Amino acid sequence: PPHPNPLPRKAGGEGVGAALAVGLFAVSDRLIWHATEVKPYSLDVLVAVAVAWGYVRSRHWSLINQCVLWILVLPATIWLSYPTCFVAGGLILGMLPGAWRSGWGGRLMFIALGLAVATSFVMLATGPAHAQRDAALSDYWVAQLADWRHPQHVPIWIVGSTMEVDRYSLLPFGQFLVPFAVIGAIQIGRRNGRLLTVLLAPAVLTLIAALLGKYPFGGGRLNVFLAPGYILLVAEGVPPCWQWLRARAWLLLIVIVALLLMPVGQTIFRTAMPWPRPDFRTPVAFVFQNGRSGDVISGDHWELLYYTRDEYWRYETLGGIGSRKLTRVWVITGTDPGVVDAVLSQVPPIWRRVEAREFDGTIAVLMEFSP
Which residues, in sequence order, are bridge partners of residue 366? Predict the structure, then answer.
């Protein structure tokens, strides 16, 4: 039987966007990679998809029934997937117009839903999430948090970080698909503004958290849960662009096909040539075996903290180097010159560079205190 609240489509585009969304999702290099890790990031993606799907399937229910469903699901899911906080926030914002127009029974249930999600979030934020946050993690996140020391750069950072989220979703050039996502957002917004809110609000809330310095926003695994929403918007925007260009500038259709095939090429390439991982184990072992007993290790990668766990005192965050009475520090990072310069710039200027040892994708720079 027909759906009681269908989303009308223009003739000729029915099903194409859905097929394209499934195809792009299936070949996304990052989604495939995270699905093979012993990490929660694929679960984050699953929650984002399940909540959007659940909203579409239940949007014709009464507000009370919708709230009962999500009260049973969201507070518990937040403890399984931290980004559910943002996904749940997007869902609640999408349901807000219906609650505003509802009777008091619906409004009270909507308030109960908000309180249940907020209570679960506060318990998580003040408990496990707070306990897991430390200086090393903050150093690792610093590029994906707004730098309010230079407020004039924050607008540029917002644009750049948003492009990075889009690029990461559909490597290698996912950011060039943004025009399709904009058109897709307009298409969905005209038919169902609440659904558009459910898809877009999690990204906006994540950005706000990054502006407050609470959660990273950019091209990385912690934001991969935003990929399904972006992919859906891109897929929704391609059919109308195709129809419009076919009658006016058909040569540009080749560009569209090339852009859509890029993620396929990326996945095929990485299947044949796996993504290289920088080696942090070897430089740490080198310092332990060849350095002095008082040498300390620092850098911008979480693996350094892991490999020094048996001698935890030998690790120090970049920001903490100046607070300890140290004489020698080995700063370990990637070999890209720009990354090396950026990392070393965080070491106090009274430290001088003594030597550097290169390894497989990493470099260990010895810094000595020079008052």
Answer: 330, 355
DSSP state of 78: T
Q: Taking the complete model, does pTM exceed 0.85, yes or no?
A: no
Q: What whole-number distance in Å separates Cα of residue 265 and Cα of residue 15?
A: 24
> What are the beta bridge partners of residue 331?
298, 365
Residue type, 356: A
| pLDDT reading at 216 higher than 70 | yes
Rounded Cα distance between 303 and 364, Å, is 14
| Sign of the torsion formed by the C-alpha atoms of 228, 229, 234 and 237 | positive
| 103 and 56 Cβ atoms separated by less than 8 Å | no
- Give, as one character, the DSSP assignment of residue 144: G
* Strand, helix or coil for residue 332: strand
Q: Cα–Cα–Cα angle for 335, 337, 341, nearest 5°?
A: 110
Sheet holding 328-334: strands in order across? 296-299, 328-334, 362-369, 351-358
- Give residue 17's identity as a one-letter amino acid code: G
Task: Give me the torsion for CA of 237, 240, 246, 251, rounded to 10°.
Answer: -10
Count of CB atoms situated within 10 Å of the CB of 188: 23
Q: In 10 A of CB 356, how many CB atoms?
A: 13
Per-residue pLDDT of 235-273, as tens digits, reads 999 999 999 999 888 899 999 999 999 999 999 999 998
pLDDT in tens, 60-75: 999 999 999 999 999 9
